[in-house]
Amino acid sequence: MHDSMQGNADSQHTEGSAAAPSKFQILALSGGGYRGLFTAKIIADLEQHIGAPIATRFDLLAGTSIGGILALALSLEIPAERMVRLFERHGSDIFRPRWSLKGILRAPYSQVALRDLLSAEDIFGDRALEACKHPVLVPSINYSTGHPVLFKTPHHRDFLRDWRYRLVDVALATSAAPGYFPRHIFDHRQYVDGGLFANAPGVLAVHEAQHFFGRSREQLHVVAIGTMSSRFTVDPRRNRSGGTIDWGGWNPAATPKRLFGIAISAQESLVHHLLRHRLLDGQYHHVDEELTDERARAVALDKTDSAAQEVLLGSGAEKAKWCLGDASFRELLNHFPAPPVFYYGANAQNSGSNTNAHAA
Fold first, then answer.
1. Measured between alpha carbons, how far is 325 from 301 in angstroms, rounded to an integer?
2. Is 179 helix (H, G, I), strand (E, B) or coil?
3. Rounded to a whole number, what is the largest CA-CA distance in the chain?
4. How far apart are CA 339 and CA 124, in angstroms?
5. pLDDT digit string (tens) for 313-341?
C-alpha cells in the first residue's frame, strides 16, 4: 500500500507547512487526454499575468491523468507555457495510432512517445517525486491489487516511500487510460488511469488538506480547472440492449473508450456539486467550459489536429481572460503560502528525517 493510503488518524495536525495561515489554497486539475491543452493554456496565461510560477500561489496541487502530468510539472515550477508547446507540437506523436487490430489485441496508442517527451531534461528527466518544490498528489489505480492509490510528495511524516518514485513513472501511471494506452508497469506493479475513480481530484485534495495538513473548512479555497467538459449521453436511436454493439458500435474496441468517457464525465459533474456544497460561499472556483455541439465534434481525448488545437487554445485563452477579469479570482493570485515542509528526500527540512528515510 502506498504512503498516500496510509497515515495515522491521530496525526491530523499541521504537518505540511511551517505555519498555519488563515487561507489554504488548492489547485485541482482534471483529466481529459489531449483536452488538457485547454488547462495548460489557462495556467500559462495566468503565469504570464503574475510573472511567476502558478504553484507559488497554492499550498497544494492535485491532478489526474493529463492534469496529474501538469500538476507534477507545476510543482517543479516548469513554466506552463513549456507544457503548452510540448502538447501543441507533439500531440500527434503521443496519439499516433499503432497496429492493434482495431484496438482488440492491444491499446491503439503506445506510451513510448509520452515517456520520451517527459524524460527530456527540461521536463522531468530522471528526477523523482522528491524533486517537487510544492506539495502535490496524483491519483492512479494499482491494477495488481485493485486498490486506488495517491502518489504524494513527502509532506507528512508517514509518507515514507512515494518520494523515491520517478516522476515519469508517476505521470505514466496516472494517465494510462483504458481503451487508449496500455497499463503502465513499474516496481513490479501495474497501474491504470486515476480518472477511473478521481478524474476531478478536488475532493481528494480537500480531504488531504483537512486530514494531513490539519486545515479547517473555513481556511480552504479551491480552484478546479477542467478540460472542457463534454457530456456523454445516449442516442435514443441506438440499440439499447446493453451489448457490445450498444456501447461501442460495430467496433468492440470502442466500448472501453465510451465507458471511460462516461465515467470521467459523470465524475466531473459529481465533484463539482460536492465541492459547491462542502465549501463555503466564495471558496470554490470552477474554471471550465462546456462544449457546444459543433466544437464537441472537433475535440476528444485523442484528437490532436489543427481544429482541436484551435478550439482548445482559443477557449483556454478566453477562459484565462475571464478569470483575470474577476476580482475575487485575482485575489487568489495574491496568496503567498508558507514554505512547505517535506520530511524526506532531497528537499527535507532536516538531515535527520532524510537519513531515517534512506534507512526505512
1. 29
2. coil
3. 66
4. 22
5. 999 999 999 999 999 999 999 999 999 99
3-class SS at 350?
coil
Asked if 231 contacts 265 with a C-beta cutoff of 8 angstroms, the reply is yes
Adjacent-strand bridge partners of 225: 29, 287
**C-alpha 129: how far from its chain's center?**
15
Q: What type of residue sits at position 222?
A: V
* Residues noted as catalytic: 65, 193
Burial-class residue 146 by CB neighbours within 10 Å (0-12, 13-18, 19+).
Answer: exposed
Signed CA dihedral, 233, 238, 240, 244: sign only: negative
pLDDT digits (tens, 9 = 90+) for 247-271: 777 777 778 888 888 888 888 889 9
Those residues whose C-beta lies under 8 Å from the C-beta of residue 297, and which sit 6 or more positions away, are none
Q: Which residue reads 499541521 in cell numbers?
A: 14
Give the residue carrying C-alpha cell 495517491: 150
- Is residue 114's pLDDT more than 90? yes
Residue 26 C-alpha cell reads as 488548492
Nearest alpha carbon to residue 152 among 11, 5, 317, 279:
5
Question: Between β-strands 189-193 and 136-142, what pairing exists: parallel, antiparallel or unpaired?
Answer: antiparallel
Mode of pairing for the β-strands spanning 184-186 and 189-193: antiparallel
H/E segment holding residue 22? none
Count of C-beta atoms within a 10 Å radius of residue 193: 31
Residue 72: closest CA among 10, 139, 5, 156: 139
Write down the residue that cell numbers 510560477 correspond to: 53
What gap in Å lies between CA 75 and CA 68, rounded to an integer? 10
Which stretches does DSSP call E strand in 209-352? 220-225, 284-287
